[in-house]
């Protein structure tokens, strides 16, 4: 049942991401809702479900993206995998930790993207790279707590409708 | 009992990590091998998302137009309040019609664009954008059912937009010229100096391979050269916004702003070969 919840929420997020999220772009930078969702799954889902959810999230995002197929699968699943293992060892609750972990995850995601692009296609980027990564990471970190709250509400609604355990 | 369980869980976790790595790298190598050619999951995704994107974009246009008209009516005097409300109501009623008129005016402009050219064009509406920050793609509401194929150029009256990299039955994916994998052979309109406009993943592009000896100034317009067989010759690619000559380099560092407003694009033209 939890897979249905993940896929349902993902389709919703990707619909938002590909349609009107560009209205909220700041200097061409838009937040990555799937990345925030992968971090959320890593932290909130029990056992290894977070990592599986990250894998599904990344793969679906890859299908709706023009980048290298597999990049988001790798990035999002690794992020969710790390958080699903760290959640019992470090403090992951509260606004500040969420912002911090989202910032770190975004830096990892974008750095991995540029590394893979460089390795596969020898693409080079100029001085705009660092500000773009920082802007992207900050944007994700800022909207993270609000997104986490929205995901929690969706989960609560889903639990009420289905009366199943997904955590 | 507990250590056994722990070992089992650790093994499971390592298996999962190995699966993630193998699966992702397999996808990436297959994808890189096919370059810009789409794979089956991407075709499937395009077909699934197209109806949702079309409906969301339509709803969004309706709402934004409604908001625009609402703001036009703010700050009215009390005497005219009732009258204004009536106008507002009429505005709302005619909202969709107004949007259709606006759209048809824009499309007329787009159609005029192709008159007298060696190619015909197919107007299309932008129904979505890329699902990630770093790739620069848009989704159009025209697909193979409308005669659209991969590698067709996409333009706007203001300039080059990109090229079709994936065509589904009713929608298609366009790789924008600002994407880091995009390259357009271009020449400067005045000096006829040649170069290649490549995307850098931001709002602007870079123009490469322009020799240090060439005179390039801010504001110079780069047009498509027609080489490469995708973009017709003479379309505006962009305008130089900064030109830097570094002594240790063979070429100039040129930053180019695309002619087409890619971040606010609502409609585009797909270039079709004339039959």
Mind sketching the topology for me?
The complex is a heterodimer of chains A (167) and B (275).
Chain A: H1 2-18, H2 33-44, H3 49-63, H4 71-86, H5 95-121, H6 129-162
Helix pairs in contact in A: 1-3, 2-3, 2-4, 2-6, 3-4, 4-5, 5-6
Chain B: H1 2-33, H2 40-72, H3 81-114, E1 119-129, E2 137-140, E3 153-156, E4 159-167, E5 172-176, E6 183-188, E7 194-199, E8 205-208, E9 221-224, E10 236-244, E11 253-258, E12 267-273
Antiparallel strand pairs in B: 1-2, 1-12, 2-5, 3-4, 3-12, 4-5, 6-7, 6-9, 7-8, 8-11, 9-10, 10-11
Structure description:
The complex is a heterodimer of chains A (167) and B (275). The model of chain A has no long low-confidence stretch (mean pLDDT 86). The N and C termini of chain A lie close together (11 Å). The relative contact order of chain A is 0.15. With 167 residues, chain A is mainly α. Chain A has one domain. Chain A is built from six helices and no strands. Chain B has 275 residues and is of the alpha+beta class. Chain B has a domain of 33 residues. Helices cover 36% and strands 27% of the residues of chain B. Chain B is built from three helices and twelve strands. In chain B, the strands form two sheets. In chain B, strands 1-2-5-4-3-12 form a six-stranded antiparallel barrel. In chain B, helix 2 packs across helix 3. The radius of gyration of chain B is 24 Å and the shape is globular.
């Amino acid at each position: 049942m939890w897979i249905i919840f993940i896929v349902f929420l993902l389709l919703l997020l990707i619909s938002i991401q590909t349609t009107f999220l560009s209205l909220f772009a700041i200097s061409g930078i838009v937040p990555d809702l799937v990345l925030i969702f992968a971090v959320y799954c890593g932290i909130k889902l029990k056992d290894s479900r977070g990592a599986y959810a990250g894998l599904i999230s990344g793969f679906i995002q890859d299908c709706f993206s023009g980048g290298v197929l597999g990049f988001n699968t790798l990035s999002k699943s690794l992020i969710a995998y790390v958080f699903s293992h760290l959640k019992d060892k470090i403090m992951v609750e509260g606004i500040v930790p969420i912002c911090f972990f989202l910032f770190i995850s975004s830096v990892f995601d974008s750095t991995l993207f540029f590394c893979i692009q460089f390795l596969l296609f020898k693409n080079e980027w100029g001085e705009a790279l660092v500000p773009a990564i920082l802007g992207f990471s900050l944007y994700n970190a800022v909207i993270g707590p609000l997104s986490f709250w929205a995901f929690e509400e969706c989960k609560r609604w889903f639990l009420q409708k289905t009366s199943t355990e997904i955590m | 009992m507990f250590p056994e369980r722990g070992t089992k869980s650790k093994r499971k976790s390592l298996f999962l990590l190995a699966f993630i790595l193998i699966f992702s790298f397999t996808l990436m190598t297959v994808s890189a091998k096919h370059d810009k050619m789409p794979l089956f999951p991407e075709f499937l995704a395009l077909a699934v998302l197209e109806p949702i994107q079309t409906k969301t974009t339509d709803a969004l246009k309706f709402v934004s137009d409604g908001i625009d008209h609402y703001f036009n009516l703010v700050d009215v005097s009390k005497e005219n309040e009732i009258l204004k409300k009536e106008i507002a109501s009429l505005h709302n009623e005619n909202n969709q019609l107004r949007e259709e008129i606006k759209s048809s005016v824009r499309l007329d402009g787009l159609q005029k664009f192709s008159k007298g050219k060696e190619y015909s064009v197919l107007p299309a509406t932008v129904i979505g954008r890329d699902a990630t920050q770093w790739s620069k793609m848009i989704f159009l509401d025209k697909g193979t059912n409308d005669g659209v194929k991969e590698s067709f150029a996409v333009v706007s009256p203001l300039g080059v937009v990109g090229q079709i990299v994936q065509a589904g039955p009713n929608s298609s994916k366009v790789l924008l010229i600002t994407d880091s994998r995009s390259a357009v052979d271009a020449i400067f309109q005045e000096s006829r100096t040649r170069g290649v406009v490549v995307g850098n993943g931001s709002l602007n592009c870079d123009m490469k391979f322009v020799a240090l000896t060439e005179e390039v100034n801010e504001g110079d317009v780069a047009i498509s050269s027609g080489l490469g067989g995708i973009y017709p010759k003479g379309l505006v690619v962009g305008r130089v916004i900064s030109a830097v000559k570094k002594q240790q380099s063979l070429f100039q560092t040129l930053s180019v702003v695309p002619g087409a407003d890619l971040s606010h694009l609502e409609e585009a033209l797909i270039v079709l070969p004339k039959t």
